[in-house]
Amino acid sequence: MGVLEIAKGMGVTLGKLFTKPVTVSYPETPARLQPRYRGRHILTRHANGLEKCIGCSLCAAACPAYAIYVEAAENTPTNTLSAGERHASVYEINMLRCIFCGMCEEACPTGAVILGNEFEMADYKTRDMVYGKEDMIVGVEGSKPQRREAAKNTKPVKRGFVVTPRREVEEAINANKNRSSSVATIPGSGVGVKPNLELNEVKR
Ligand code: SF4
Ligand code: SF4
User: Fold this and answer.
1) With a 6 A CB cut-off, is 72 part of the ligand 2 pocket?
2) Whole domain around residue 160: which residue ranges?
3) Which of 87, 140, 156, 161 is an S-S bond match for 31, by CB 3.0 to 4.6 Å?
4) 30: how many CB neighbours lie within 10 A of its CB?
5) For residue 195, which of 93, 66, 95, 51 has the smallest C-alpha distance?
6) Structural domain includes residue 25
7) CATH number at residue 147
8) How many domains does the chain have?
9) pTM for this structure?
């Protein structure tokens, strides 16, 4: 190695001494995520409050990691949760298996499952890494440990990142904030039902 190469190498090192570091002191300093970042799933609702998930299990079939478990149940006049004939009575994702590939989102015929931006899910017990509807329904903020911590300290959920969510995620969150939840009309049918919004309801 010649003197010239050494000088070039030292030049690169010296140059970096005066540039702003790209690393941040996470979690004290929030990480800035790219909008396309795929994290914890969100289960979306129609504008009238009915869940978009119809319990068809196509997402589970498409999942390469076998991370999704769905059980479907019929909607009845007194227990209508979704805009289809059936709803997901159980919808679980094992976050330890999930590789956040987005295949479930691609496979879903109703846009019911989308990948959001949350990623801070590290927990102590394996069973706490299985997320159910109540952990993923749109409106839920934070992971299980973050929500536990917030409840313990009676403080809002503290997330260690900032992000401008991609369009699908932003639309789902805004639709949920603006939804009317008294009487719902099943999209495309004109049929009015009283949706059961208490189950899986999230404080807004
Ligand atoms: S993101 Fe990929 S691995 Fe995770 S649940 Fe969806 S399909 Fe399965
Ligand atoms: S999330 Fe979509 S693909 Fe999965 S069960 Fe519900 S409707 Fe079917």
Assistant:
1) no
2) 39-193
3) 161
4) 14
5) 51
6) no
7) 3.30.70.3270
8) 1
9) 0.84
